[in-house]
Amino acid sequence: MNNELxxxxxxxxxxxxxxALMPEKAWDAALDQRIAELPIITAATPSGDKTELxxxxxxLHLLNESLDASHAxxxxxxxxxxxxxxxxxxxxxxxxxxxxxxxFHNAGxxxxxxxxxxxxxxxxxxxxxxxxxxxxxxxxxxxxxARQVRWNASAFTAMVALQESGGSSEDTRGALEYIQHxxxxxxxxxxxxxxxxxxx
Length: 200
Known about the structure:
By secondary structure, the chain is mainly alpha-helical. The protein has one domain. Helices cover 68% and strands 0% of the residues. It has helices at 3-13, 29-36, 50-63, 67-76, 81-94, 97-107, 111-126, 129-132, 137-145, 153-164, 170-195. It is globular and about 55 Å long.
């Protein structure tokens, strides 16, 4: 894999804070510039190979909480399920919840969603976090993750919307940020794996 890409991914993976539900700016502006300058898509890249690479760029920017840059890439591949999924998360993180749900619908039953569901359900069942959360709709929604069979992106969006409207506590914010972290990890792992053969 491209050495600079490896260094960028390592920087993103070792950050000490989780991505905000609604970030106000890029986590690391200098890193965002490094992502933008990655030479992984060139004029010589066959058009059929560009989708996976563009998705990778959208994911890297979103992991760095750079919404506009991520959006620009996701818009280029909005007919692709992975592009639609990155597009949906970006809109949720900017607070455009109905638009987020539109793109989650377009992403369909994305493979990353099942892995996310398994990890999130396991976390809800086996962590002590749930019993520490205040009663309310967000806690109920988090508890429902342990019972559902498939990842419900619109239900999670509704929890984030309620949290951001002031309808819950900072404890629930931390739980939602952790679940979002799992989502970003799984989608990025899928995206990176799809692009790996193009980055040798």
